[in-house]
Amino acid sequence: MKIDFPKISPALSSRNFHDIFYEEDPILEMCTIIDSAFENKAVDRVRLYNAVIKNCKFTNTDFSNIDITDVCFENCDLSNVNLSKSSVHRVEFKNCKLVGVNFAESSVGNVMFEDSVLNLAGFGNSKLEKVIFKEASLNSTDFYDCKLKKVEFQKCILDGANFEQTSLKGIDISSSAFDTLTISIESLKGCKVSSYQAIQFASLMGLIIKD
């Protein structure tokens, strides 16, 4: 599956998240933000466009209602960040820590999570379209009541992930690994799995498999 990657200008100025902390209309665009810390803060309705963000820490910050478009996050820590009710489009997360991040009730499109840790993250009631999770850790990640369209899990760890009320029709999880998943039989219809996973699901359903 092809996704649209961030469209980032070659001419970017250096900025800092603290520049917008007291602004009434917080917006950062056409910029690079490197080696910055913006933790335990709360800024509503931030707009972040056309940016490269590297080696930054945002732990426990409230960015609810944020609009992120054409942005690359690299080596960033967004653990326990509130991104609920956000719009995230044409965005890359490379080697990022997103433990416990809250994406609830968000629109996520053309997004790549690569070599990133999303354990305990929450996507509940969100719409994900053209999203790739590549070699990502998704232990106990919550996808409750999500709409998934053209979503790929490539060599991910999905142990304990929750897909209740979420259809996996057309979704390929065959290259990913898990011991348990929270999911209904109805939601599994049309999901692409490996033969080993099929045996796992049969076991989780209580079937006794004989050689």
TrEMBL record:
<dbReference type="InterPro" id="IPR001646">
    <property type="entry name" value="5peptide_repeat"/>
</dbReference>
<protein>
    <submittedName>
        <fullName>Quinolone resistance protein</fullName>
    </submittedName>
</protein>
<dbReference type="InterPro" id="IPR052949">
    <property type="entry name" value="PA_immunity-related"/>
</dbReference>
<dbReference type="Pfam" id="PF00805">
    <property type="entry name" value="Pentapeptide"/>
</dbReference>
<dbReference type="Pfam" id="PF13599">
    <property type="entry name" value="Pentapeptide_4"/>
</dbReference>
